[in-house]
Design a protein that fits this description.
alpha/beta; 13 helices; about 35% helix; globular
């Protein structure tokens, strides 16, 4: 446990405790159920730089390994988003005579595969060997290592400076953030940019998206905290824009101080955060109380449905499902199983709560009365695909930002 900020060393004040939790993507077999790793999932805010962060962290080797279950290509929406990212970089930052892009945490190569197809020099730095192999199968060049300043120096020595360093749902995962930024400083060309897309604290608070809090997400970025972090390591926040991924993220662009003119959006977003008191104790304490209310309402609904003899199945097994089921105490008595389209999760158990994960065909064999949508950030895509469920009288249960039945 730590009470000093990982970014600036300031004092961190805890504001929410989501209890004893396992690693969110540590899906396991029944035989492994008695050997799980658990930690206290609590979050605090730095009084100096406003960075929101985990109080306790899980060693990165326990989170990213050869059996990592998250595949970024698993959603059609994700594939489209990252293909658009690739096109954007190819049209803007990667137009020089011999451009080079490095992606921190490239996962299964969903973004870099489009860069590779364009014949542009690239490198993914990915510590999880299984997803790294999936990326290589798509023609992506991958270095299987954790990214830090040592790795960055090795990459620069072999490949030269990068025009773009990119990360998506990765930078907020890395506890040694200072080493990451020193590595970016080592690797980035003088006019290059460091672009990263991460869950947004403003969205988490506004949507009561507490299930975005789990072991992999060490930091919960705001525009104010990212600007302070950038300045501490010699960078400047030059752009920030909302993107719809995972229910609402922000894409941050950092450049060397003075290298680019900051976009007007930054001042607007900073003003909005200040007006909302986003990092203020009162706001964060109110968020905790709201989460506690959602817990009470959802459990009352599920218990009432069970008492009435209604069937409920979980839909989607993202890392968010681990947080919800463990903090709320949702077991197989309330939700007998969860369906998920990721083959590597099927036949395993949701960490901690041990809900069985089944293939999608189990959803319609037969349809349940209700489906608890853990993958709520893909609600539109999922509901469009599962129209027969609704036609058969099935109803969806959502819990962010409040409990409701559709």
């Amino acid at each position: 446990m730590r009470t000093d900020c990982r970014v600036c060393g300031g004092e961190v004040r805890e504001f929410v405790d989501l209890g004893r939790q396992p690693t969110a993507n540590g899906f396991l077999t029944p035989e492994e159920a008695d050997r799980e790793f658990f930690f206290r999932l609590a979050v605090g805010v730095c009084g100096r730089c406003a960075m929101v962060q985990l109080i306790e962290e899980v060693p990165q080797e326990l989170r990213y390994h050869g059996a990592y279950r998250y595949h970024a290509s698993g959603s059609a929406g994700h594939r489209q988003h990252f293909e658009q990212n690739a096109r954007r970089f190819l049209d803007t930052e990667l137009t020089g005579p011999d451009p080079f892009v490095v992606e921190i945490g490239c996962n299964d190569g969903v973004m870099l595969s489009a860069i590779a197809e364009a014949g542009v020099r690239h490198l993914g730095v990915e510590p999880s060997t299984n997803v790294a192999e999936l990326a290589r199968a798509k023609g992506v060049k991958v270095l299987t290592r954790f990214f830090d300043e040592t790795t960055a120096a090795a990459v620069r020595a072999e490949h030269g400076a990068a025009d773009v360093v990119f990360g998506a749902n990765t930078i907020c995962h890395i506890a040694h953030i200072g080493s990451v930024l020193r590595g970016v400083d080592e690797l980035l060309s003088p006019g290059g940019v460091f672009v990263f897309e991460e869950p947004y604290l403003g969205t988490i608070v506004e949507r009561t998206a507490f299930d975005q809090i789990y072991d992999e997400h060490v930091f919960y970025f705001s525009v104010a905290s990212v600007r302070a972090m950038a300045e501490r390591f010699g960078f400047e926040l030059v752009d920030a824009e909302h993107i719809p991924l995972h229910g609402g993220e922000i894409r941050y662009t950092l450049a060397r101080a003075g290298a680019r003119v900051p976009a007007p959006a930054i001042a607007s977003l900073l003003a909005d955060e200040a007006a909302r008191g986003l990092s203020e104790p009162e706001t964060l304490d109110r968020f905790r109380r709201t989460v506690e209310g959602v817990k009470d309402e959802l459990l009352a609904l599920l218990r009432g449905l069970r008492a009435d003899g209604r069937s409920v199945v979980g839909y989607g097994a993202p890392g968010k499902a681990t947080t919800v089921t463990n903090y709320f105490g949702i077991g197989t008595d309330l939700v007998p199983f969860v369906v998920d389209s990721t083959p590597s999760k099927q036949g395993l158990l949701v960490p901690g709560s041990h809900l069985p994960v089944r293939a999608p065909h189990a959803f319609s064999d037969p349809y349940p009365d209700y489906a608890l949508l853990f993958a709520w950030n893909h609600a539109e895509e999922i509901m469009a695909k599962e129209q027969e469920f609704q036609a058969a009288g099935g109803r969806w249960i959502l819990y962010a930002p409040e409990v409701r039945v559709i």
